[in-house]
Description:
The complex is a heterotrimer. Chain A is an alpha/beta fold. Chain A contains 12 helices and 10 strands.
Amino acid sequence: xxxxxxxxxxxxxxxxxxxxxxxxxxxxxxxxxxxxxxxxxxxxxxxxxxxxxxxxxxxxxxxxxxxxxxxxxxxxxxxxxxxxxxxxxxxxxxxxxxxxxxxxxxxxxxxxxxxxxxxxxxxxxxxxxxxxxxxxxxxxxxxxxxxxxxxxxxxxxxxxxxxxxxxxxxxxxxxxxxxxxxxxxxxxxxxxxxxxxxxxxxxxxxxxxxxxxxxxxxxxxxxxxxxxxxxxxxxxxxxxxxxxxxxxxxxxxxxxxxxxxxxx
Amino acid sequence: xxxxxxxxxxxxxxxxxxxxxxxxxxxxxxxxxxxxxxxxxxxxxxxxxxxxxxxxxxxxxxxxxxxxxxxxxxxxxxxxxxxxxxxxxxxxxxxxxxxxxxxxxxxxxxxxxxxxxxxxxxxxxxxxxxxxxxxxxxxxxxxxxxxxxxxxxxxxxxxxxxxxxxxxxxxxxxxxxxxxxxxxxxxxxxxxxxxxxxxxxxxxxxxxxxxxxxxxxxxxxxxxxxxxxxxxxxxxxxxxxxxxxxxxxxxxxxxxxxxxxxxxxxxxxxxxxxxxx
Amino acid sequence: xxxxxxxxxxxxxxxxxxxxxxxxxxxxxxxxxxxxxxxxxxxxxxxxxxxxxxxxxxxxxxxxxxxxxxxxxxxxxxxxxxxxxxxxxxxxxxxxxxxxxxxxxxxxxxxxxxxxxxxxxxxxxxxxxxxxxxxxxxxxxxxxxxxxxxxxxxxxxxxxxxxxxxxxxxxxxxxxxxxxxxxxxxxxxxxxxxxxxxxxxxxxxxxxxxxxxxxxxxxxxxxxxxxxxxxxxxxxxxxxxxxxxxxxxxxxxxxxxxxxxxxxxxxxxxxxxxxxxxxxxx
Lengths: 264, 277, 282
């Protein structure tokens, strides 16, 4: 049994089909990169996996997590899975955090929900988690509010929340797109290290091939709601089969930068 | 603008707003040439006459025909609310533009000035104007128009500041556009949706404010029929024969609702994104 | 008026010298007051740009690289006289560019134009494309009559790879890449000598990004434009620019030929930045 099995996932909004028959599978501890341009349906696929689709979305197909079907389940039945089974890291760390809640309370929330920890115990655990994601002065930072943190620190908080209840799968939706390159490098290192330590699986969504290549061993390329190519990351990058993937890789090579290459 | 008109008519609420506003305007125009009775004519035999073929809306204590009064009242109400809205639009937009584009301390001074003027009650303004000029239609228009104008200025200042911070304004500046060009080509068109909705609201408030001022004796002279005065005169009947209050009340509700829906409809119709080509 | 005459004098004096760069900035500084934290205390200031000097030769392409908060956008606004520096001067062909009334800057606006990052917000949603592209022509009094304006609008729209008929439509009817082409057309319309791009491709999809970069490179070559490209992306700068300036915390960390700076960085921050760039496995 695979950890996550997505079959024939289709998401519609009214007349428009934004995800059309997506098939993905992810074993325990595996890391899959999902790449696509804006409008390719990659984010909606990620949201569907976590049962976080916005109202108005019509979903068909199958999403099985640890063998049990998630689609068609009631909100009440899915909620316990979020955080405990599947942790989600959002793109925009500022808007994903509640501006009126202290950092510690937000990191501790999944623990209080899923592990039934007391307020005090959750606060202690939050400080430990803050230290684990490399936040400076954890004891002080758990008492801070989101606006008092930098963008990179906020994303570390986002990661701490996602891993708090030790989920088997972490879904990260463009987690570094809003960040600077140097900060992005730190966050990617942190994310891969944590996934390694915890033995969780990772579904990493991005528009940036170079970023995905750093964190994932397998790559799925999405276009217009479909997965057009899937395979080991290096194979896809070196020898793309689909014309669209070839175009994407060529574009990425043209504007990315490698120290080995001689600058034009 | 034909595209805008088409999309206004296509939206159900926009069409309703247009229809209601058209009925009010039509009633006003009709009242200029024809009313079933002279709205001021007293007829003791018809005192509290019920709704009938002779008196469509019935008659009041003095036997004045209520339908004629409502028709004639539309004239004043529409005149006062339209004129007051124009005054509010002009003062509000000018003040807001001054507060948004002038540099440094002028900007701060105008901004604080607007805040102070907002705190000045319309009623007090009306009393001051009445003390100087006496109660007249013009007094009502100025009192309501200026009072609402400061409110418009406050909202429009924020709206214009928002538009001025947009990238396309920066791009226009880099393209060599001066302050006036930026104001009329970018800021006004993009602040217009807010202004449209605001003015439909102001117009609705003006109808009610005119009624209130007339009720207090600070508005139009007592010989002129208005919906506000009718409500005032008939209010004693609220528990005895409430049906007579329905007519001026219904007229006010229809007008206010019409203007509001029309305002919303115009806002959407003016948006190129909402218009499908 | 005085600004103009002194400007002309400087230009006359400078034109005599052989070593006058196209655009030059000396000792630029700009700080902004931070929001008040207490009613009585002094307002703190954040120095966005502290003492930046640079030269751009005619026909060159300069990349300005830095992370958020490095002062890139502020620097660009200062270079284009869209903001007033606390200290320092900007000169175009030796003539001082003084921020002030739009009318006194018209000569400089004809020479230098900008393309902003997000084409969703840099085009007025209520203006047709043709009107938007014509705006600098009208504002700067470049094109002359209606027919000449329309002809120039059609010409630049074609130059950026769009159909002239598209001018009748509104910005929301276009894709991100097309919108950025429109913004480029608008900047090109008054035939500037310098084109400044403030993160010109950051908001675009990867495949579109390459096309827009190619367009910029081609236009720079065919129109003989001098480019200044601000970006957080070293790949973009490597693609377009022969000179690079690394901005760190409002100051110049490193300034030199792109090939040299990217292969043999001298400043520790440049090295840190280069190490952080995600790489595609070869």
